Amino acid sequence: MKNLSDRINAIEESATLAMAAKAREFKSRGIDVINLSLGEPDFKTPQFICDAAKQAIDTGTFFSYPPVAGYQDLREALALKYQNENNVPYKAENIVVSNGAKQSIANVMLALLNPGDEVIVFSPYWVSYDALVRLCEATPVLVKGTIENDFKATAEQVEKAITSKTKALIFSSPCNPTGSVFSRKELEAIAAVVLKHEGLLVIADEIYEHINFTGERVSLASLPGMFERTITVNGFAKGFAMTGWRVGYIAAPKWIADGSNKVQGQITSANCSISQRGALAAIVGDLASTNTMVEAYHKRRDIVYNLLKDINGVKANYPQGAFYFFPDVSSFYGKSDGARTIKNGDDFCLFMLEVANVSLVPGSAFGDDNCVRISYAASEKELIEAMRRMKETLAKLK
Ligand code: GLU
Predict the structure, then answer these.
(1) What's the average pLDDT block by block, 10 residues per block, for the chain (398 residues)?
(2) Residue pair 335/10 in contact by the 8 Å Cβ criterion
(3) d(CA 100, ligand 1 centre) in Å
(4) Whose CA is closest to 105, among 176, 53, 21, 211?
(5) Domain 6-44+289-394 class?
């Protein structure tokens, strides 16, 4: 009998990765698909990072298991980065390096959550937050932002959602999938609510910290009283174009870092040695390459915004960071091109893939079926062509 656990039956396949796989499959059949589904920089990893990794191989000293929490020099460099750039006094003992920020979040949740605990998930949320909470047999409690409010949950909403079972809050800023960025004032208001409740924790995902067009970068853990209450999540994939290297990390109070370390020691032993040497070069190097990529994203944000505005029936907010749009396309639901009727975001994305050959991710995966996610981590040429195809194809829906 094929009998998977209730835990695994309770979650879905990652929609972002599933859509990316579908786009790849179309491409392998010779179809010219523009893939705007996966949140993956279209840039190559900067050369100085690749050189450091090559050198690490050549020295012949990085072949054995690294320490579970990561190499000491990398953890020290990450702590120093948080002290200098983010104004948070982390030390190496607060850092655990993992196989991508996704594993960092999984480690933390496995270390903290008991069945029946509640986790407040700001919605729209990144697809795996909700799934990982459920994998831990805890309950996600969604606090929903609206497009009118730039998709941001408010401190008042958080306050109302807190119960005696609430263990933690989780959100990303800059946000995947909406591109919203919480201001200092908004974060202070959330912190004030959290601090009223003893033991309440926040998992603050800062993986998009560099891709922020507001000019203001605030780490939640830097706010008064929040060091002890915050698990900061970060990684190298987005800011340094290192998705495949799989290097993420947490910075957290020592007892939580120790708990995560214990999980990691049983699950993966440690993050790949060579990837860590590349990550060390990235973190001690200057941010020139990162800044060049961020400038390109900034420009693309405006290109896509102007083209999206020009498509009848699409309602988009103006994202302030990350590299996503999360437009409301619900005005097309119930419409048909004569051959098929679009009932929801899943149908919309399938229609876009099959007819326009543009790959997107349905908003249902992020908690809002009225929307779809567009990643603009693609070339200007591809983005302009994708928007043209979308506009032309959507005009066929009546
Ligand atoms: N974080 C990226 C995304 O949302 C990568 C895919 C994933 O890990 O879900 O597309």
Answers:
(1) 89 87 90 93 97 97 96 98 98 98 98 97 97 96 95 97 98 98 98 98 98 97 98 98 98 98 97 98 97 98 97 96 98 95 94 95 96 97 98 96
(2) no
(3) 10
(4) 176
(5) alpha beta
CATH of domain 63-284: 3.40.640.10
β partners of residue 341: 336
Q: What pairing do the DSSP bridges indicate for beta strands 95-98 and 248-251?
A: antiparallel
Confirm or reject: Cβ of 17 under 6 Å from ligand 1.
Answer: yes
Name the residue of 37, 40, 247, 366 to mutate for ligand 1: max ligand atoms within 8 A of Cβ: 40
Distance 196 CA to ligand 1 centre (A): 33
Span from the CA of 386 to the centroid of ligand 1 (angstroms):
20
Which residues, 6+ apart, have CB-to-CB distance to 4 below 8 Å?
A: none
Structure tokens that stand for 14 in this block: 């990652």
331 lines ligand 1 (CB under 6 A): no
Q: Which two tokens stand for residue 159?
A: 């306050």
CB-based burial label for 30 (10 Å; 0-12, 13-18, 19+)? exposed
Torsion 109-113-115-119 (CA) sign = negative
Whole-number Å distance, alpha carbon 256 to ligand 1 midpoint, is 25
**In this structure, are residues 93 and 147 in contact, taking their beta carbons and an 8 Å threshold?**
no
Q: Which pTM was predicted?
A: 0.96
Phi, psi of 251 (to 5 degrees): -130, 120
Sign of the four-CA dihedral 201, 207, 213, 215 = positive
Segments of 306-371 assigned E as strands: 324-325, 358-359, 361-362
**Segments making up each domain of the chain, as ranges:** 6-44+289-394, 63-284
> Residue holding tokens 């609510």?
193
Same fold, 6-44+289-394 and 63-284: no
* Nearest Cα residue to atom 5 of ligand 1: 39
Residue nearest to atom 9 of ligand 1 (CA): 16
Atom of ligand 1 nearest to the CA of 176: 4
